[in-house]
Amino acid sequence: MSVFNSAEFDFAFLDEGFTARDIVEQKINEVSLSDDKDAFYVADLGDVLKKHLRWVRALPRVTPFYAVKCNDSKAVVMTLASLGAGFDCASKTEIQLVQNIGVSPERIIYANPCKQVSQIKYAAAQGVQKMTFDSEVELMKVARSHSNAKLVLRIATDDSKAVCRLSVKFGATLKTSRLLLERAKELGVDIIGVRPSFHVGSGCTDPDTFSQAISDARCVFDMGEELGFNMTLLDIGGGFPGSEDVKLKFEEITAVINPALDKYFPADSGVQIIAEPGRYYVASAYTLAVNIIAKKVVLKEQSASDDEDDGTNDKTLMYYVNDGVYGSFNCILYDHAHVLPVLHKKPKPDEKFFTCSIWGPTCDGLDRIVELCGMPELQVGDWMLFENMGAYTVAASSTFNGFQKPDIHYVMSRPAWQLMQQIQEQGLIQPVEELCPSTMPICCAWESGIELPSSSCSTRVCGINC
């Protein structure tokens, strides 16, 4: 386990009684008299710690290998490294990132089924042995380039009820799996396990799919053992939800996974079980603050039949903010995200609401963040906050049109830091329930001062941090 001190982390301690939201307020106040009201993040590393404790409690047999692609911020990687997590890397650069902070190669899985030969050779030189494959061509590449590789066969599973369907791109069928295992035997390549090509939390609404994926993995395990492979690793993948604004909650998923693991891979089987959570760890830790840089008022023509004024039909408002879909909000395009702002200034009880849309700063018409919502009239210089912005946001953002990426301010409470130090030195020596007491959701959609169209009401529920 990597051991770090506070000087190695790029974060600020929260004063007693303060939260990450207080830091957002502080940063906004600091620039209140300036014209430089740039977008920024506040990220609570203590929230990442709480997620880890929740994971240990809900999935005690499953070791998390954090998916670096979700958010490759060094502070996040260091936090998880200090907690003993492994890492799912998809490239040479990601392997370098985690190894540069002292993570051993045993705690890395090169989980990309389609690898460049030079990067396979790099992994071999760095001692990274665990890697995935799903084709004969990949087997032959590995056989030529990495004599010590320990391969995990990625199999296709039924993800027809998931929003992000990874089996379209990756995964071998059960029939092809046997052929691949036989070919691996011929090539002298070592197969150690199976990874279903299924992200259990990526918009899936049917928990039984998870059990089927684990059952399929058992079938391929048996094939491998019949051929003489020492099958010791099951990788159940990733996609676990990182906030509560999802149809299928984290504990609902784990309530299905645990019995399936006990049935098909019992504790006395000697099989190591890992997963590749990404959004689970970081989504709720990040809050993004954006500033309104421009505004357009679009007047509506009043119909003669409109006898009553409903308070929203005289004009619509278009707000332009200083981050967009080419930056942090790329999650809208690439991750099927639905976002809605929390207003920095709470509206008055009798304040009139208008139909609004929210746009990013670039000169591209595609740069729309929110198509339709109800908000009071705001002004240039006002702030909007977006919660749950840690997953697939900063990692894939660009500087298109010359707009820079927001600064990230990392924070952590002293008790959280002390607990991290304890875990580094002694492991989890207290019952997890004592370290991570249950909490209730502390905010609801209506508290944000935003009105959504009725069809969108299910997309905005604030989450539990623990």
UniProtKB/TrEMBL annotation:
Pathway assigned in UniProt: Amine and polyamine biosynthesis; putrescine biosynthesis via L-ornithine pathway; putrescine from L-ornithine: step 1/1
GO biological process: eye photoreceptor cell development; putrescine biosynthetic process from arginine, via ornithine
Annotated active site: 363
Domain Orn/DAP/Arg decarboxylase 2 C-terminal intervals: 40-390
A Pfam family annotated for this UniProt entry: Orn_Arg_deC_N
Positions carrying N6-(pyridoxal phosphate)lysine: 69
Entries under Gene3D superfamilies matching the protein: Alanine racemase (3.20.20.10), Lyase, Ornithine Decarboxylase, Chain A, domain 1 (2.40.37.10)
Catalytic reaction list: L-ornithine + H(+) = putrescine + CO2
Protein name: ornithine decarboxylase
Native organism: Lepisosteus oculatus
